[in-house]
Predict the structure.
Amino acid sequence: MRKKYEKPNYSPAVKIALAAVLAALAAALAFIIVLQARQARLERGELTPAQSAEQTDAAADEAAAQAAAAQAEADEQRAQEEAERVEAERTKRAEEAKKYSFYQKLANGYDVKMLIMGDSVISGCGASGEGTMWQNLLKDYVEEKYSAGMTVENLSGAGNSLFPDMLTVKDGDTAADCDLAVLCYGYDDPNEDFAVYFEALARAIHLKNPDCAIIYVLEATEGGHTPRMQALESVCGYYGIPVADTFAPYYALGQQGFFEALADGVHPNDKGQQIYFETVRDIIDENVAADTGKMEDIAPLSAEAARFDNMLYIPVEKFIREDDVTFTVTAAEAGIGEGGFKGVLMLDCGYDVVREDAKVIADDILYNIPRITAIKDPHRDGRSLITVNEELVLTDSMSVTFTDKDKADKFNGVYLAWETPKEKAN
């Protein structure tokens, strides 16, 4: 029985190559036909030798142009197919990488992204150039040792502190695509609630991106393992966050050597950048060797930090401006559900708010601003945040009233944070 003919199923690349060959053959055949026609006319005396040569050259140029065009089309198609193949491979590899932690990605040669958050001490300030900054030393080291590309996003800088940076993570996609977050604070943070705000930031990063590893760097200029650093290390121990301790290598230099590793008494110079690089490097190497997995979900250590797990921002645009100094909003317009709200309320203003500047009324209950210092937010152009009350209740409506129009004009909105556990988690 005669076998049924089956049309060959050539790959796109083979089809392109065949098309280019056919185009070249067609051009060559056309050129031969032109040559034969020119020769016949020449023999009949219809063309002079010079005219025949001119037309032959023109035909040859046209054939060459057709062949070149066919080849260019084939090359373009091949380049497109190669780009699609590379992109498909990249997508496949990115999907495969999702099952790994930051450290496991390095062990398997996957590209990674590092996010740096903190004050100017960790920013690279004090280095003689970009090449001697600790983060660039680390990038070069990782790429050479693990054959993995490393992207660095540096959000650290002068004036940065824990609470505003926690809001930055909450409000946007800062930590959404990073594999490692390196945190370093202290110089620009008050002692009060330091460990609480650090835990809130760590939880914010983990809630935004559960796959992100975290390393905390102790600032050498903190002056040793102070009470607030000990409290912070306790939080890190609870969550399994590695601590890069720059104290020991700095103090091993002696008093004179300590200051010789600082550019201005605060920021690490090139020698200090090397210390910061080595402490973070060693933690990464240790965890790669230990095959450390992803950070686990864990109950909050402190109720004070857990109250920031859930946050809602109500911008001034959702309020109704009743007059020059008063703004009102209903719970429904604010996006609060039927169960109402109970938790922390913070004012967001474009100036340093103090006790006498404003008052808040929620469900007909007056809340005066307490005598606490506002937290400045360097990420929001001179804006500051102040906690009005930690147990505010809102089920119906709320009003915010300022003492004068100028202050009211700088009102940006309010933050609500809720679901505070009543007892410390075990």
Summary: Residues 420-426 have pLDDT under 50 and may be disordered. The longest strand covers residues 383-394. Residues 49-97 form the longest helix (49 residues).
